Amino acid sequence: MTGDIQEAAMSRDELIHAIRDHNRTASHEFLGGFDDPALSHYLQHLRAGRKPRGAASCWIRIPETSAIVTRGN
Questions:
Q1: How many DSSP H helices and E strands does the chain contain?
Q2: What pLDDT sits at residue 1?
Q3: Higher confidence at residue 67 or residue 14?
Q4: Cα–Cα distance between 5 and 26 in angstroms, integer?
Q5: Model-level pTM?
Q6: Buried/exposed code over 5-35 (b: 16+ C-beta within 10 A; e: otherwise)
């Protein structure tokens, strides 16, 4: 995947800046609490969400993340 290579070459500050270009509500301080692989994965997710939907659109969830999360009462 081209996106994987692109994000892997980015510095931490570049990742945070790119994420904030897509999601202005995420503060620099909040994003700073995540490690680089998590930031890269989130950026890939944001970029995939901006592409047109259809047969060619695809985003692969990494096994370490849950598809569904529930909270107890």
A1: 4, 0
A2: 44
A3: 14
A4: 23
A5: 0.68
A6: eebeebeeeebbebbeeeeeeeeeeebeebe
What CA–CA distance (Å, rounded) separates 8 from 35? 13
Residues 15-35: tens digit of each pLDDT: 999 999 999 999 999 999 999
What is the distance between the alpha carbons of residues 73 and 45, in angstroms, rounded to a whole number?
Answer: 29
Least Cα distance to 26 among 41, 7, 43, 11 occurs for 43
DSSP result, 50-70: HSPPSTT---PPPTTS-S---
Rg of the chain on CA atoms, in Å: 13
Residues 45-63: tens digit of each pLDDT: 899 888 777 777 766 777 7
